[in-house]
Design goal:
Elements (H helix, E strand, L loop, with lengths): L6 H5 L2 H11 L2 E7 L11 E4 L4 H10 L7 E10 L9 H14 L4 E4 L1 E4 L5 H17 L5 E5 L5 E6 L2 E6 L11 E5 L5 E21 L7 E3 L4 E5 L5 E5 L8 E5 L12 E9 L5 E9 L2 H13 E3 L3 E6 L2 H12 L5 E6 L3 E7 L1 H11 L17 H15 E2 L5 E6 L2 H13 L4 E7 L3 E2 L5 E2 L3 E8 L3 H4 L18 E3 L1 H10 L14 H5 L2 E3 H14 L5 H14 L3 E23 L4 E4 L4 E4 L5 E6 L14 H4 L5 H5 L9 H4 L2 H15 L15 E3 L4 E2 L4 E2 L1 E2 L2 H5 L8 H7 L15 H14 L5
Antiparallel strand pairs: 1-2, 1-3, 3-4, 3-33, 5-32, 6-32, 6-36, 7-8, 7-9, 9-10, 10-11, 10-29, 12-13, 14-29, 15-16, 17-18, 18-20, 19-20, 21-22, 22-26, 23-26, 24-25, 27-28, 30-31, 34-35
Helix pairs in contact: 6-9, 12-15, 14-15
């Protein structure tokens, strides 16, 4: 089992807390809440002070920092004699409004912040190395760190192991992992990840029939693949997508999932009654009944220190769960609760840990077993049966639906079903507050759902199977557009079957926009048998139809498109040969197209001798005509104070560095005296990695394993500091070097 560390456990490290405190002195501390589902920021908690560990811990406790998804930042500015604010939101809001009018009076210093926002992670690294060479040349003191975020899923394969990962983690798998893609012959396959890309951009939310209220997100320049009316798969930029377009999804007709796992060597920690402790290894045989039990646990099971529990009003299901363990010699007990529920408890450290490894615990954090991508279809069917038995609900006569707090479960199950050729759709809803069986009030929460057509249940769960009739809704991801068939009808003009009063087999073709794959396949077969108009154009249309019908292509229709106003992180990968890959909570085909980058902070001491004001309102007005202002440079060194404050100087340095040294990924957005940066050694809640200061060797050999929380603590943070470079030079040498940099950049002469 993998041994990880929780965010709360990470911040419990005393040496790490000291590193945070050293950065907080005389600075604003800034908490930014992040929505765990959308990954978007909400109202920040600003203007905190944290001069010692006790004060920072008090802020953590007061604002729920360790229990909620929050990132921590500090200001680039330092303040002298800054007042503290109340914890009361009423008083705090009034104090903040007053502070905004007077904060400039307290400004003391402002560090220079340089950041790469990368469209190519390797390019970002090259740019930061070149910037490092410039700062080293002029003997300027600086620190460097790496910061990141991202959560869009992709399916990858390493050797025979398949798993669904967040796309930002793909940097770890460049050149040795494969991703799911679509070949030119329209069959799905695996192709190698050859590169990793990230940048920031405004997102477009594309809603579609099979995704319900869960959109696929892309940028204006990011291309989705669409099936057009001529049955060509074409690229359309996000800005060009329209309601009614058919996005390309998966229908697996090949053996992407293979039965490579019959047993697992499982390691677990044991502690027997004689207090003997140790690591034990046992083989677990993956059977259909075990898979059913895992599905049942996923729906309504729970874990304690040494037990597995399952509670249901259906006593037969509970007994089936208990009997699986009883047949293997493990003790289990039944008990009734709340009159209608029967509980079974299995006492086994081995099985408790195995179920935790397989599916996790706590409803919102559960997931599918990692080995489910390598078992046979019948075992997958058994797993889904167990999940439906405990958490499924028959929503109507056409669908069987499953609802969960865990977005991960629904997302993984959707991908899994699509890969074994089962049509499904996903959605989400916000449930209202309601009482539990004990009468206690449960707060409302976001629930995720997956629905499976009952006509698809023949193999998965025969008792829910229903033969389709003419009134049954079609599964849109098992349908294809009919436009091209209407075009074909105009060419071949098929005869009426059975004389003047006979039936036309093309009646539905003429009235429906989409029809089922099976219907269209049979209709094409009839056309080929009866058609006598063998023109080149007819042959071309039939070939196009065959290429799609005999392929792994299916569709989902765009229902709505919305646009975000703010910039967000965007992540992409390059794929060998095809340059496209399936991605999203519901798998859709996209082409290779936030923020990930390297940060450099230059302490104020390097520039303090210049004697400028930190901020002047009249200098800010120059930003409107900033390009014109650049044309007036260079100026005499003695006139620096007349033309610049530090904010304007930093903005100018950014622009000049980017232009002169061709640093493509350097962010030149206008500097702000209130700007904050992610605190070094802090946990990023989007990526679950650490914003880590890097020494020269780490920068040259950078990989994401370095910033895994457990690896950061293993490497040690005690008195590690911000890894400042050029510490060997005295202050006078560093300040002279900064003057030379200003001349090199053409700012002064």
């Amino acid at each position: 089992m993998n041994i990880n560390i929780t965010r709360k456990g990470f911040y419990a490290n005393v040496s790490l807390m000291y590193e945070l405190i050293h950065q907080c002195k005389d600075r604003e501390v800034f908490f930014l809440p992040i929505d765990p589902v959308t990954k978007k920021a909400s109202r920040p908690i600003r203007w905190l002070m944290a001069q010692y560990i006790g004060m920072l811990k008090r802020h953590f406790e007061q604002y729920g920092f360790l229990d909620k998804n929050m990132n921590i930042y500090h200001s680039l500015a330092t303040y002298q004699n800054r007042p503290m604010f109340s914890y009361s939101w009423l008083h705090k809001s009034q104090e903040q409004e007053l502070w905004k009018e007077h904060y400039r009076e307290y400004l003391e210093k402002l560090d220079l912040f340089l950041e790469t926002d990368s469209t190519d992670i390797m390019q970002a690294k090259e740019d930061i190395l070149q910037l490092k060479n410039v700062l080293d040349k002029f003997k300027i003191r600086y620190s460097q760190k790496f910061s990141l975020a991202g959560d869009t899923p992709i399916l990858i394969k390493i050797n025979d192991e398949i798993k669904l990962i967040e796309i930002e983690k793909a940097i770890n798998y460049v050149n040795f992992a494969d991703v799911l893609t679509l070949e030119k012959n329209n069959t799905i396959c695996w192709r190698k990840i050859t590169n990793f890309i990230s940048h920031q951009d405004k997102l477009i939310n594309v809603f579609h029939r099979q995704g319900g209220k869960i959109p696929i997100q892309c940028t204006a320049d990011h291309s989705a693949f669409v099936l057009n009316e001529n049955y060509d798969i074409i690229e359309k930029k996000g800005s060009e997508l329209r309601e009614g377009d058919f996005l390309v999804t998966i229908n697996n007709t090949h053996n992407i999932i293979k039965d490579n796992t019959q047993e697992i060597n499982f390691n677990f920690l044991y502690n027997n009654r004689k207090n003997n402790k140790g690591l034990k290894s046992e083989k677990i045989l993956i059977t259909n009944e075990l898979m059913w039990c895992l599905g049942a646990y996923l729906g309504d099971g729970s874990l304690s220190d040494r037990q597995i529990q399952l509670g249901k009003s259906n006593f037969e299901l509970v007994r089936r769960f208990g009997n699986f363990f009883g047949k293997q010699g493990y003790r289990f007990d039944y008990r009734k609760n709340y009159k209608t529920l029967l509980y079974v408890s299995i006492s086994s450290k081995k099985w408790r840990d195995f179920f935790d490894y397989s599916c996790g615990h706590l409803a919102e954090h559960k997931h599918l077993p990692p080995y489910i991508w390598q078992v046979s279809k019948d075992k997958i069917y058994s797993f889904v049966q167990g999940y439906i038995d405990t958490d499924g609900q028959k929503t109507d006569e056409h669908f069987v639906s499953i609802k969960s707090k865990s977005k991960t479960i629904i997302m993984e199950l959707c991908w899994l079903l699509k890969l074994i050729g089962i049509s499904c759709r996903i959605n989400k809803e916000v449930t209202k507050s309601h009482p539990n069986p004990k009468g206690q009030k449960i707060k409302g929460f976001t629930a995720y759902m997956i629905s499976i057509n009952r006509e698809e249940m023949e193999q998965i769960y025969p008792k829910y199977f229903k033969v389709r009739n003419k009134f049954s809704p079609e599964a849109i991801d098992n349908c294809l557009p009919t436009n091209i068939f209407r075009k074909l009808l105009k060419q071949i003009k098929p005869k009426i079957i059975g004389g003047a009063k006979g039936k036309r087999p093309d009646g539905l073709i003429r009235t429906k926009d989409t029809l089922s794959h099976d219907f269209l396949a049979k209709y094409l077969d009839w056309i080929e048998k009866t058609n006598k108009n063998n023109t080149v154009e007819v042959a071309d249309i039939i070939k196009r139809i065959k290429n799609v019908i005999n392929s792994d292509i299916r569709i989902t229709k765009i229902t709505k498109i919305t646009y975000d106003a703010l910039f967000s992180p965007v992540y992409d990968i390059s794929v060998e040969e095809t340059e496209r890959f399936y991605t999203g909570k519901y798998p859709l085909l996209f082409q290779n197209s936030g923020s990930k980058g390297f940060h450099v902070i230059i302490p104020f001491e390097n520039m303090e001798h210049l004697g400028l004001e930190i901020y002047e309102a009249k200098k800010e007005r120059l930003w409107v005509k900033f390009e014109e202002f650049l044309q007036t440079l260079p100026i005499k060194f003695a006139d620096l104070r007349k033309h610049f404050d530090y904010v304007l100087l930093y903005k100018t340095i950014n622009m000049k560095l980017k232009g002169i040294y061709a640093l493509e990924t350097l962010d030149t957005s206008i500097s702000d005296v209130l700007r904050v940066c992610k605190m070094a050694y802090s946990w990023d809640v989007k990526s679950n990695r650490i914003a880590l200061p890097l020494n020269n060797e780490q920068l040259l050999n950078f990989n994401l394993d370095m910033v895994e929380p457990i690896n950061v603590l293993k490497a040690g943070v005690h008195k590690r500091g911000l890894m400042y470079q050029n510490e060997q030079y005295d202050l006078k040498t560093r300040q002279d070097g900064f003057n030379e940099l200003l001349m090199e950049l053409g700012i002064v002469k």
